[in-house]
Amino acid sequence: MAGESSEIHGLKQPIENSFVKDNIPKYEMDARGHAITEECPKLNNTRDRWNLIYIVFLVHGIGTLTPWNMFINAQNYFTTYKLAESYIGYSFPYLPIFMQLLTFCSQVPNVAFNWLNIFVQIRAELTTRIVYSIGTIFVSILLTVILAMIDTSSWPEVFFWITMICVVILNMANGIYQNTVFGMAAKLPAKYTGAIILGNNISGTLVSLVSMLTIYIFDDPRMAGIYYFIIALVVLCICFDTYFALPLNRFYRHHERESEKLKFHQKSPNENDSKIPYLKVMNQCKVQLCNVFCVFLVTLSIFPSIQGEVQPVDPNFFIKQPYFTQVTCFLTFNIFAMIGSLLANVVQWPKPEVLWIPVTMRFLYIPYYIFSNYQVQNQNRLLPVYFENEWIYWFISITMALSSGYLSSLAMMYTSLVVEPKYASTAGMMGGAFLITGIFGGILVSFIWPWAVTHIG
Predict the structure, then answer these.
(1) Looking at the whole model, is its pTM more than 0.70?
(2) Residues 211 and 64 reside in one and the same domain
(3) Pfam families from the entry (predicted)?
(4) d(Cα 359, Cα 234) in Å, to the nearest integer?
């Protein structure tokens, strides 16, 4: 009959009567706008076959940090090639503080738009956020690739400011992208949030390996920069494609439907759909948000600012520069942070109420690294060096990286679990915002250490 629907294999056909269709809750509709039944075996399938959805969020975790890793690892491309005196013919005024400016332009918009993405309700929801954010990042990096391929020696100031504008726009979009991905993962079991953190760490590992490979193969910073940028474009294309595969997966549709159903049934009669009690949600997960912030604050105040400038004391140590820094700093951190994220999917200890204890203890890493052989370029160190053994330094670096990956993954997982289920997505987005805020705070703190070791003593 017209205005009714018929069932085929547990799925109902499209409902012709618009009045009836408009009054069906969103969670009772499938990806094509068809009504579904509780008995539908396909959409109630709760197995992630072959871990496809886990892999998708892993890929998005790689994609959210690839642009940042790409720019910081392409430092030589900017400082020894595009803006070097040998290329442009004079001493570029912003060259000594290039990394500080790059960091500032990267993290300020990233922090701002992470938070904005939580409180500003975009009516087109997730698809609009993902499509436009990834598209904007892609265009910004593509412009950077084009700039790498052409001769900019006669207009270095224009090149510099175009690059910085690209970095600002890229990180505005990346703030929305990263935060939205955490919100999506929060609708699923906790391990999928862990997959994003694992992907973040894999991103750093991959870029570190590419950096070491380019150092070994050739000394051309221009080619190294181009390779970094092209790799980032490829990763973003993969992220773009995999996002649109999510609604086609039964497991993902099931959990998305359950999340919508929970919101619908737990909503009070007078509650507006678009009104989220942000203070209530933040109060419920405030301890875990603080844990997320503190883990990344400590990590980024050390890595790579201090750790990247620690020099070997023993001239006979088997790893010599420049590989000492590449191995004991970048490669060690990224590999063991990745292992820590993997461990968090297997072992969840300590429990949420006591996680703050190991998180707080990580602040002890800061004085250790300051009193190791940390040297500021072109300046004399006044603080004494108390920790000189390279093997102990390397072991401490491993524990710092392992604890960073493990504790950050646990804190992000717990953030969505300690709130009411209907607010899990909002809590996940808040966790992403505190994550990037912790990164920004750590970077700001890292600017203190060069002054401290060269003026105190």
Answers:
(1) yes
(2) yes
(3) Nucleoside_tran
(4) 35
